[in-house]
Amino acid sequence: MIKRVAIIGGTGVYGINSNEIILNIKTIYGQVEVNIIKLNNDKEIVFLPRHGKGHSTPPHLINYRANMMALKELSVTHIYSTCAVGSLNENYDIGDIVIINDFLDFTKNRINTFFDGDDGVKHTDMSDPYCSYLRNKVMKFSSDYDINIKGNAVYACTEGPRFETSAEIKMYGFMGADVVGMTNVPEVVLAKELGMCYSAIGIITNWCTGFKKGEDIVLHEIASSIEKNKIKLEKMFIEILSGDLSQDECNCNNAILEL
């Protein structure tokens, strides 16, 4: 039986391998195009570009439920994702890599659950939103790929597509956020609802609005930060996902509480 794992590529990460097989998966929430990379064993990696090929879908219009359901229907068990983030932590500079370990949700208009009451009332335990097992794997393998993990980070997710105001950034900082992005919620929540192990790695692409005087958000700096890190991250993800993986060392597959 083929085992499947997945990589979700964020901004600037739209493909991994020229030998990918393209599949169109139809779910009840919509159609999703994914790429399949065959490994040298009984495993396949499903690559899903979060924004579509060529960055065609803005963050507030991504069909998150279709994306995550497509991975579930392909029997994916473990997911690594990349996300471009702004920093509001002095210790996390442009070009740094952080492991997301918690989030603050400031989205407004997104459908953020599969649980609509059709199958009873269900709640999701979010005490470990980003799989601790997969996060520990990154810490173990990162030095082999010359990836300097600067630390863990709390991710504030905003609606987008606009960037945040200086006042908003100050508020997020008071609440404990380290980085800000527009895509990780509800993605991380939906993965948990479907019992898939999910970990997100943040690439610092800019300082948040107003955080550093005279430091504006510059598009070429965003692209440069991503390009600098994406190949190393992809190679590390592939090695980790190619190995033996467990769902017995975390609570991701047992996080649903039914009333």
Automatic annotation (TrEMBL):
Any single Pfam family the record assigns to this protein: PNP_UDP_1
Catalyses which reaction(s): a purine D-ribonucleoside + phosphate = a purine nucleobase + alpha-D-ribose 1-phosphate
InterPro entries in the cross-refs: MTAP, Nucleoside_phosphorylase_d, Nucleoside_phosphorylase_sf
GO molecular function: S-methyl-5-thioadenosine phosphorylase activity
All copies of domain Nucleoside phosphorylase, residue ranges: 36-235
Sections of the chain in a coiled coil: none
This protein's UniProt keywords: Glycosyltransferase, Purine salvage, Transferase
GO cellular component: cytosol
Keyword Glycosyltransferase: yes
Binding residue positions for phosphate: T11, R50, H51, T183
Binding site for substrate: M182
The UniProt record lists the keyword Transferase: yes
Residues the record marks as site: Important for substrate specificity: E164, L219
Annotated EC: 2.4.2.1
EC category: transferase
GO biological process, one term: purine ribonucleoside salvage
Pathway note: Purine metabolism; purine nucleoside salvage
Recorded family membership: Belongs to the PNP/MTAP phosphorylase family. MTAP subfamily.
Listed NCBIfam families: PRK09136.1 (NF006599)
Additional remarks: Although this enzyme belongs to the family of MTA phosphorylases based on sequence homology, it lacks several conserved amino acids in the substrate binding pocket that confer specificity towards MTA.
The protein's role, per its UniProt record: Purine nucleoside phosphorylase involved in purine salvage.
Quaternary structure annotation from Swiss-Prot or TrEMBL: Homohexamer. Dimer of a homotrimer.
Name this protein carries in UniProt: Purine nucleoside phosphorylase
Organism: Helicovermis profundi
